[in-house]
């Protein structure tokens, strides 16, 4: 018990722990960008999928909401896995990767939502 508490307090535990959960926040997509940002946070995670069907659903739903406008944030709720800290995405610019297993909800952001 002490070891887990000690490691989590030091941030080391985070490096060996993979989250498999539901994530809610803002998603934006475009050329060389695929961003997930938890509401209230500034850190962006690279979004990926392991399935063509999920990838197509993610992007087609996104473009349907944004009117084919890239880089506009939408509200998203997905089931997926969060990676350990590292370098992910285009030019390794993201500190984590969120691998989406299923899209549970996606809609336009309301005014002032998820800042």
- Mean pLDDT, as a whole number? 86
Major sheet attributes: 5 strands, mixed, barrel
CATH class: Mainly Beta
Low-confidence stretches at least 5 residues in length (pLDDT < 50)? 1-17
Helix-strand sequence = HHEEEHEE
List the helices and strands and how they pair.
Elements lengths: L1 H9 L1 H5 L2 E12 L2 E6 L6 E5 L2 H15 L7 E9 L14 E12 L7
Q: What this model shows, in words?
A:
This protein is of the alpha+beta class. It has a single domain (18-108), classed as OB fold (Dihydrolipoamide Acetyltransferase, E2P) (Beta Barrel), CATH 2.40.50. 25% of the residues lie in helices and 38% in strands. It is built from 3 helices and 5 strands; from the N terminus they run ααβββαββ. The chain has a 5-stranded mixed beta barrel. Strand 2 (33-38) and strand 3 form a beta hairpin. The longest helix has 15 residues, at 52-66. It is globular and about 30 Å long. 18% of the residues are buried.
In short:
The protein is α+β, with helices and mostly antiparallel strands and 115 residues long.
From the structure above, extract its key features.
115 residues, alpha+beta, OB fold (Dihydrolipoamide Acetyltransferase, E2P), 3 helices
